Amino acid sequence: MASPPMEYRTGNDGDLDGMVAVFQAAFPRWPLIDVPVPAREHLAWKMRSHPRVIDGHMLSILDGEVVGAMVQLARDVRIRGETLIAQSTADVALVPRLQGTGLSRLGTPFYMATIAGLFDLSLNTESNHPSLRAIAASRGTSRSIGNPFRRLVLGLTPASAAGIRWHAAGWRGLPHATRDTVRRLPEPRIEIETVQSLDSRLDDLWAETAPAFDLIGVRDAAFLNWRYADPRGGVSLIRIATQGDAVLGYTVLRWAAQDGAVIADMLVHPDRPDVVRDLAIDAARQTRAQGHRSVGCMLPTRHPYRDVLLKLGFVDLGRQTEVKYDGSTRPIEDFAFLEEPGLAAHLTLGDFDYI
Questions:
Q1: For labelling alongside 196, which of 62, 106, 291, 337 has CA 20 to 30 A away?
Q2: CA-to-CA distance for 13 and 204, rounded, in angstroms?
Q3: In b/e form, how buried is each residue of 136-154, taking b as 16+ CB within 10 angstroms?
Q4: What number of other Cβ atoms are within 10 A of residue 58's Cβ?
């Protein structure tokens, strides 16, 4: 008797338990980050990333059982002054017995006909996973933006600084390692405080900063509170730099594996390198106070914050991560300027489902 065909449909809140079961069967650990809520609540949070896109998730059904799931993140992005909805893939999985069968690609026609039209374009980091690369290839030809990600890390102990320098430059880096410890990091000169949520002052910072970039994810208070202040999305330390009633910038720290922390997000107007400096110093001091040995971030290769961080002792590990774009409801040619090497892009780890 022939096996029943795979069926596809969009996922909703009624599918949460089945989707969690797929992810937890497929991955050694899911969620991949520490969250202070049940996995079901984390998934419900993730599936509500954008108020206009609630049907952007796909299920694979075999003989009435949910055997595969794909969760998409949707967010507003500003591209040369125009606000568009961008898709990025968060979680994709098949139950173990079906992995490696090529079935993950069979849902592409359903995705293209039913889900792709919810988004103006897609923005994803390049994956080395064979299944994800096959899915991406089956959807069409994506292209790389001209300003890829680079990872920057600051060691906060002599041992971690030496390890980071060795990783980046071999023996040549070791004489510089002792310069990368916390003794380089004085008290910040501006007032920086912890907040539990973000208010309308962040809308002002966003409005002032966005025009400086050709490509930037919208960072108004509503988005930031969903992304970083909701415990269902993980535990964050949100720090804001203030001057009077104005917010000059912010950082979001998240604690990662291997005794490190990451700056998941950061926003400061490019004309204020002093604020970038003080927020980075503060991030390092907060990380060290928590007992972690390093703090890192990812930024585009050409970015106004980069030189400030390098002067503080952050080290470029030499790894380049491509950011891919593709058109959905818009032709890919509409976004060809994203391939320009001089693209002014502001992207961080928090723009994707890394942390």
A1: 291
A2: 34
A3: beeeeebbebbbbbbbbbb
A4: 21
Q: Whole-angstrom Cα distance, residue 153 to residue 134?
A: 31
DSSP E strands in 179-222: the ranges are: 191-195, 215-217
Q: List, for residues 295-313, the tens digit of each pLDDT value.
A: 999 999 999 999 999 999 9
Taking CA atoms, 128 is separated from 134, 208, 342, in Å, by 10, 37, 26
Per DSSP, the three-state class of 21 is helix
pTM equals 0.91
- CB contact set of 144 (below 8 Å; sequence gap of 6+): 126, 322, 323, 324, 325, 339
Sign of the C-alpha dihedral computed for residues 308, 311, 315 and 318 taken in this order:
positive
Task: State what percent of residues in the chain have pLDDT above 70.
Answer: 89
Between CA 279 and CA 249 the distance in angstroms is 8
In three-state secondary structure terms, 310 is helix
The answer on pLDDT for 172 being more than 60 is no
Q: How confident is the model at residue 52, as a pLDDT?
A: 80
The answer to whether 97 touches 72, Cβ cutoff 8 Å, is: no
Contact 331, 131 (CB under 8 A): no
Q: Name residue, tokens 């980069």.
A: 306
Q: How many other CB atoms sit within 10 Å of the CB of residue 200? A: 10
Closest by Cα among 246, 244, 239, 249 to 285: 239
* Selection from 251, 312, 242, 302 nearest residue 277 by Cα: 312
User: What is the pLDDT averaged over residues 11-32?
Assistant: 95
- pLDDT, one tens digit per residue, over 88-104 is 999 999 999 988 777 66
- β-pairing verdict for 294-300 and 260-268: parallel
